[in-house]
Amino acid sequence: MSTALLMIAAVMLDKLLGEPRRAHPLVAFGRVVHGIERRMHADTRWAGVLAWSVAVLPSVLLLWVLQQAMPIWASRLIAVLTLYFTLGLRSLGEHAQPVATALQSGELDAARGAVGRMVSRDTAALNTHQVAAAATESVLENGNDAVFGALFWFALLGAPGALLYRLANTLDAMWGYRTPRYERFGWAAARIDDVLNYVPARLTAFTYALCGNFNRALRCWREQAPQWDSPNAGPVMAAGAGALDVRLGGAAPYHGVWEERPALGEGDPPSAESISRALRLLRNGVIVWLTVALLWGFAIHGGLHA
C-alpha cells in the first residue's frame, strides 16, 4: 500500500506546487543532453544508442543505489520527490486553461500565442476551432506522456522506473525526429520511448474511455488509431477524442506546410469547452488510477496478513 500512498503524495505535491519555476531537474538534464549530443553525435544508430545510454542510465542507476543505501523514510521521501518532478498534471492545466479562457473571450491572437507554448505546429494561421483542437490534442497526448506514463512506471519499478521513463520521454522530444540530423542518431530515443509507452498509452486510452463516452471512445480507438503515425499517440488521442464527443485531427501547419492528418473522434467541433473537458477527463482519470492503486494495495496488504 505504500506505493499508492507515495503516488498520492506526489500528485498532491504537484497540485500544491506545480512545476518548479527555477532549477527544474529536467531543464538541467536538457543542458546535459545538448552537451552529450555535441560530443557524441554521428550519423549512425549505434552512436544514438550509446548517447542515449550515457544520458539516461547513470542517473537511473545512481538513484537506485542511493535508495538502497538510505533509511526507508529517506528512500520514500526521494521516491515522492522523484515522481513529483516527473509529473506535469498541474502544468498541463496552467498551459491549456489560458487557451480556453482566451477563446471564450474572443481573443484569438492571445489564444494562438498561448497554444504556441503547448504545440510544435505553426499557430499564426490557426482559426478558433484549430486552436481549440491543438490544445485539446496536447492535453490528451501529454496526459499520457506527463502523467499516466510516469505513474505506471513508478507503480511498476518505483522511483528509478519513473525517472527512466521521464528521461527517455524527454530524449524522444529532443532527438526523436525524422530529419537528416536525427534520422539515425535519434532512432534509439524514438524506439525506446515507443516501447516504454506501449502499455501506459493503452491504459491511458482505456482510462479516457472509462471517464467519458465509453463505447464511442473504444470505437474511435479501434477504427482511427491504426491510421495515426505514432503507435502510442494514436490510441490515446483517438480514445480521448471519442470519450469527449469531439472531432480532432485533420489538417495542421508544420514549418509553413499544411499536413493532412487522420481524423480523431466524433461529435462536435473543438472549442474552448473541449479544452476544459479534456482537463477534467485527465484529472478524473488520475483519481481512478490512484483509487485502483489504493484498492490494490489494500488487497495485497490484506492477503499478506490473512
From TrEMBL:
Pathway the protein acts in: Cofactor biosynthesis; adenosylcobalamin biosynthesis
Lineage: Bacteria, Pseudomonadati, Pseudomonadota, Gammaproteobacteria, Lysobacterales
Keyword Transmembrane among record annotations: yes
Record protein name field: Cobalamin biosynthesis protein CobD
Keywords associated with the record: Cell membrane, Cobalamin biosynthesis, Membrane, Transmembrane, Transmembrane helix
Bilayer topology annotation: Multi-pass membrane protein
Record InterPro entries: Cobalamin_biosynth_CobD/CbiB
Species this protein is from: Dyella psychrodurans
Subcellular location: Cell membrane
Organism superkingdom: Bacteria
